[in-house]
């Protein structure tokens, strides 16, 4: 049976959600809401979808919806959908503020609704293939670089890009962050555009994360070091390399990745959760934890900036 779904916000990412959903046999796309007439016209013409003039009108026609509007609008739109009794996949970050995210989690629990957050890296086939090998991780090194595209300027690079790696560290290392050191620089916007962060976890692990939205190239790499293995993941190329210590030599580990569009995997998983009333792989709580850690990192960056100004 098909699930009736809609999309709110069809800019860069929302139109990808809409396009992928139209290709999925289990989805029946009712339509979309978009404030820009020019963008809406293009979506109607290219994807042949119906435009609704409000979230309320879309909510009457669907069982669930994707929210892909600017982050600062996530709270109001997701809350309206949940209040209307709809399940929601809200793009990352769940909200601009921790308190808003927590309130969305509470609303979803009160209305018995599915609330999934679009941390799409968790559904990336390279991460999915590597995850079972990530035991006893001692050190993580992540590099997430993007060229400046002039989108997501309502948020800094922490909520824009690094939030993916914060979510990966929290969900794959299963330990609490106890110490945060960070430096960040605004380059092309008034918010931090490039940052390097060192996290220490309760179990002794360390994560060294770099994110930039003002680079010359697009890089998505994360490396995990454990007592028994080294796993290097390129989520852009969906490639994983692994090595472990054999008989006094370093031996490659065979890791097979079944390549697939991560957004499709994420949407398939969301629709399955809607049908089977299952907790999503990336829940509202996971989304809140990532934003809370991003706020701690932002505070550490503020503290380091004050030192320069002295
Ligand atoms: N998961 C990922 O890897 C990933 C990648 C890019 C963006 N995102 C997230 O997706 C969201 C959107 O980012 P984007 O790059 O697509 O931005 P964008 O600016 O390209 O698109 C946002 C769209 O929402 C529309 N919009 C704004 N307010 C609206 C409202 N109230 N109702 C309906 N439409 C509205 C805008 O007109 C625009 O078309 C952000 O939260 C961003 O963080 C996630």
What is the element layout, followed by pairings?
Elements: E1 3-8, H1 12-22, E2 27-33, H2 37-47, E3 51-52, H3 55-61, E4 64-67, H4 74-83, E5 87-91, H5 98-110, E6 115-118, H6 125-130, E7 137-145, H7 157-173, E8 177-185, E9 194-201, E10 206-212, E11 219-226, E12 229-234, E13 239-245, E14 250-253, H8 262-276, H9 284-309
Parallel strand pairs: 1-2, 1-4, 2-3, 4-5, 5-6, 7-10
Antiparallel strand pairs: 7-11, 8-9, 9-10, 11-12, 12-13, 13-14
The structure holds nicotinamide-adenine-dinucleotide.
Nicotinamide-adenine-dinucleotide (NAD) is lined by residues 8-14, 33-36, 39, 68-71, 73, 91-92, 118, 120, 151-152.
Mean pLDDT: 96
The CATH architecture of the largest domain is 2-Layer Sandwich
How far do the termini sit from each other?
A: 63 Å
How would you write the strand order of the largest sheet? 8-9-10-7-11-12-13-14
- Global shape: globular
Unreliable stretches:
none
Number of helices: 9
Name of the CATH superfamily of the largest domain: Dihydrodipicolinate Reductase, domain 2
Bound molecules: nicotinamide-adenine-dinucleotide
Q: Based on DSSP secondary structure assignment, what is the total number of beta strands? A: 14
Q: Roughly how many Å is the radius of gyration?
A: 20 Å
Fill in the CATH topology of the largest domain: Dihydrodipicolinate Reductase, domain 2
Q: Profile the largest sheet.
A: 8 strands, mixed
Order of helices and strands: EHEHEHEHEHEHEHEEEEEEEHH
**Strand pairing plus helix content: what structural class?**
alpha/beta
- β-strand percent reads 25-35%
- Can you give the helix content as a percent range? 25-40%
- What is the count of structural domains? 2
What's the level 1 CATH class of the largest domain?
Alpha Beta
